[in-house]
Amino acid sequence: MSETVEALSRGAGLAAWRQIADALEAEIAAGKLAQGTQLPTEAALAARFGVNRHTVRRALATLAERGLIRASQGRGTFVEAAPLAYPIGRRTRFSEIVTGAGREPWGELVAQTEVTADANGAAMLGVSEGAPLLELVTVHRADGVPLSTARTWLPLPRFSGFAEAYAASGSITRALSACGVPDYTRLSTRIRARPADPAEAARLDLTPGRVVIVVSSVNVDAAGIPIQANRSAFAADRVELVVSP
What we know:
two-stranded antiparallel sheet; Arc Repressor Mutant, subunit A; transcription regulation; six-stranded antiparallel sheet; alpha+beta; 9 helices; 2 domains; Chorismate lyase
């Protein structure tokens, strides 16, 4: 039996999965498992600790609930990176913020549809209730790690080509520029926290019930005309929102 297996205290009143979780957490804290590092497979961990894969799975689930690791479907399980400082002010640009932190930004278009403005959407975008809007569902990543998922609404027909421009560029700013809006500013921002819904958890590689920070905002063009209403759900453990005037 290996030293690692012997390190588990059998019959000491502490479940094996808890001991495994504590051991891996200690390695993360000590830097032995660095931020962004891929963990060994469940099979490898089971062999290391001399337990079955179900026990390892429970230990990993506990670490995921604590926000220490992230399971990415089809890729494996990774140690979470340090939270990214994300300034929110008059000019908020995802790509600039992520690039400035030394990471690679990308936005993924998940879905697009044409909807009609309800009372709330009409008020935010300054259009008539029932007016046509383009609705997008997106995921925003830094070095491949999902930081946020969003629903975005833009008035039609002004932004009829926005979805295609965004899918090609992965950038809200470049897509707006392609639609004739070279610059824009933030009109309003509202922030709250809540548990991720199932769709958000899946898109953000979160375990069910993890907290997201919801940022609802409206952007305007140079003439002060509302062009975009947005509701972003940020993985709370992956960003630190910094609010500036």
